[in-house]
Specification:
The chain has 362 residues and is of the alpha/beta class. It is 50% helix and 12% strand. The protein is built from 18 helices and ten strands. The strands form four sheets. Strands 1-2-4-3 form a four-stranded mixed sheet. The mean pLDDT is 93. Bound molecules: adenosine-5'-triphosphate and magnesium ion. The site of adenosine-5'-triphosphate has 9 residues, from helix 7.
Length: 362
């Protein structure tokens, strides 16, 4: 990854522009954490970058940031800039490209995110982010109150970094969160969800949730059930407990899954019919929320007599022939009945036995 990053930096440098790795990649590199993508800050504008790397798509250029894929590594390349005036405490109204790294670092959120590294892996750290990284503290670049007021997403980012890295928030950041938390209401649900996903998916998610609760952000974030979360088995289990599919953006399959998990939560997840109807995954998530051992659920599921209609030893044609009837609603009823009888062991999943049962009853 580093080798490819060096090549990318080299190419930009060789064209006469400054370029450094910055942000999450450098922070995580110094902490020995693997990164998924690499942020680069450069004096080259998106257009100039496109001349260097032909396959850059300028459609996302809006905020002076472009994406470059090299050998499956994603580079987020951002032109040195000043941000002028925020709309709705969210997005900068306009950006002004500049030629000065130091000024670019000033507009960033936290000191630990301002450490730069050049193509020789030399650290450039004018804001002393490394000291804060070593002290394991989240401090804003400049005045905390002004930073969080300017873009309230930084409240969630502070909590995310504190949670995921196990860092403390500086007193100033804590005070600024308390003072500006009401601004979270104005923030788009999309941006909020992106940060919340990163908090909830982390192994320290419970600490993150404690922190959100400590600042009483459940109200501002409209996550009334945050306090009900006792363990965090998976991202989907957290969102299921929160059950905010009408407020936050989820795709249809996520919505369906969350709805099913909420239904399964009210049922006995070791019951054969519940296991059969909702399947192993939904019951495991619901079970985990209730503290039921996953192994127990898996065993109960595996020992089901049937797992789907396909496993029934009788077909609808055979039932119709047996009862000398054409197709109709009655088939669904019979199916449900025999599934139940087989699941609870009243009859065996055997053609003759099923036939006898049907003849006796219908
Ligand atoms: P991740 O590990 O999630 O990539 P990151 O710190 O790299 O964390 P990004 O969203 O990739 O976060 O942003 C890259 C860099 O851009 C940050 O490190 C920070 O310097 C700056 N940045 C991102 N979002 C903001 C913001 N809302 N306000 C100020 N600076 C920001
Ligand atoms: Mg990043």
């Amino acid at each position: 990854m580093l080798e490819i990053a060096k090549q990318v930096l080299n190419m930009i440098n060789n064209n006469g522009y400054k370029a450094y790795m910055v942000g999450g990649f450098v922070r995580d590199y110094l902490l020995g954490i693997e990164s998924n993508d690499i942020d680069i800050t450069t004096s080259a504008t998106p257009k100039q970058l496109q001349e260097i790397f032909q396959d850059i798509d300028l459609s996302s250029e809006e905020y002076g940031s472009v994406t470059l894929m090299v050998h499956k590594i994603r580079f987020e390349i951002t032109t040195f800039r000043k941000e002028i005036q925020y709309i709705d405490n969210r997005k900068p109204l306009e950006v002004e490209y500049i030629d000065d790294l130091y000024q670019d670092l000033q507009r960033r959120d936290f000191t630990i995110n301002t450490i730069c590294m050049d193509k020789n892996l030399e650290i450039i750290d004018p804001l002393n982010g490394r000291i804060d990284l070593e002290r394991r503290i989240i401090k804003t670049v400049g005045d905390a109150d002004a930073k969080l007021e300017e873009d309230s997403l930084r409240i969630l980012r502070a909590i995310r970094f504190s949670t995921n890295l196990g860092f403390c928030l500086s007193n100033e950041v804590e005070l600024a969160i308390k003072k500006n938390k009401h601004l979270l209401k104005k923030l788009s649900y999309n941006r909020k969800k992106q940060e919340l996903d990163k908090i909830f998916a982390n192994k320290n998610a419970m600490q993150g949730i404690q922190l959100l609760l400590r600042f009483h952000l459940e109200k501002e974030l409209e996550l009334e059930r945050l306090k009900d979360i006792k363990n965090t088995d998976s991202l989907i289990s957290v969102w299921s407990i929160l059950n905010v599919i009408d407020i936050y953006p989820f795709n249809n399959s996520e919505k369906e899954l969350i709805t099913s998990i909420n239904q399964a939560l009210k049922l006995n997840n070791l019951d054969p019919k519940v296991l059969y109807d909702y399947g192993l995954y939904v019951n495991s998530v619901a079970g985990a929320i209730k503290g039921i051992d996953k192994k127990k659920i898996t065993e109960a599921y595996n020992s089901l007599k049937i797992h789907s209609k396909k496993e029934l030893e009788i077909t609808s044609e055979e039932i119709m022939e047996l009862l000398k009837k054409g197709p109709g609603e009655y088939l669904t009823k019979i199916y449900k009945d025999i599934e139940n009888k087989i699941l609870y062991g009243t009859i065996d999943n055997q053609k003759e036995e099923i036939k006898n049962y049907i003849l006796g009853k219908y």
